[in-house]
Amino acid sequence: MTVREPHLAGQTVIVIGGSAGIGLETARLAVAEGAEVILTGRDEDRLKHAAADVGAVRTAAFDATDGARLDGFFAELPGRVDHIMVTAGRPYYARLADLDFDDAGRHVSGHLLLPLRVGRAATGRVRPGGTVLFMGGTGARRPGLGLAVTGALTMALPALVANLALEIAPIRVNLIAAGFVDTPLSAELLGDDLDRRRDQLRATLPIGRVVTPADVAALAVHLMANTALTGATYDIDGGQQLTSP
Fold first, then answer.
1. Mean pLDDT across the stretch 22-28?
2. CA–CA gap between residue 35 and residue 6 (Å, rounded)
3. Which domains does the chain have, with CATH numbers?
4. What confidence tier does 7 reach under pLDDT thresholds 50, 70, 90?
5. What is the pLDDT, as a whole number, of residue 39?
6. Angle, nearest 10°, between helix axes 21-32 and 213-225?
7. What is the rounded average pLDDT of the residues 3-18?
8. Within 13 Å of residue 235, how many CA atoms lie on the same side as its CB?
9. Quick check: 57 and 37 in contact, CB under 8 A?
């Protein structure tokens, strides 16, 4: 029987927002594929548990939208890394009449300025051919009530990623655009409607099941390992866009 070489053997992966959900599952798979992982997150206790769970070699607890803390984190790294994945952030839903402009501004900053900061910090820190990988979504591509801010950012991220791929080449930059993923964040956002949403998706998605963090992690690791991929957006939603809203 042929035993294949792990896809990320000897490499180092940073997951910003790696203490739960998609980030944590990506870290887990990266370790299984031979990588060392560095996790960051806001909650220090949850981050410690996540690090112990996957065997992270290093952690740093800070808010990724704090530019000074983010820059300090990269400045303090002991050496170069191979991949950075950013899963920090959450969607912002509010109708225009209820819009809190301060909250909306922080959301816009987190989704547009954070990638720019990470992209700039990656130069000189990520080895040539390595990856900077961001998370986006597909659900807000369709206009809807309360989706003005998140919808605009959904459409902006692919353009930002494509431009970063040129700016910081030969470092590669890609975007994963997910539909509904069964994560703790989804549970928090949906509350009592979570089970109803799961049942609805199982009944309507072409794949006949709900997308999980492990599904997204598998795509993320593939994008890290395949050195021909850069500047593109990769949808993973189980066919959600093919069905009625």
1. 96
2. 9
3. 12-238 (3.40.50.720)
4. very high
5. 98
6. 50
7. 92
8. 13
9. yes
CA dihedral 123, 126, 127, 129 (to 10 degrees): -90
C-alpha span between 108 and 92 (Å, rounded)? 9
Q: Which two tokens stand for residue 161?
A: 């990623």
CA–CA–CA angle 17, 20, 25 (5° rounding): 95
Element (H, E) at 185: helix 184-190
Token pair, residue 125, equals: 């820190």
pLDDT tens track for 166-213: 999 999 999 999 999 998 888 888 888 899 999 999 999 999 999 999
Q: What is the pTM of this model?
A: 0.93
The one-letter amino acid at 23: G
- In b/e form, how buried is each residue of 21-49, taking b as 16+ CB within 10 angstroms? bbbbbbbbbbbebebbbbbbbeeeeebbe
HEC profile of 92-148: CCCCHHHCCHHHHHHHHHHHHHHHHHHHHHHCCCEEEEEEEEEEEECHHHCCCCCCH
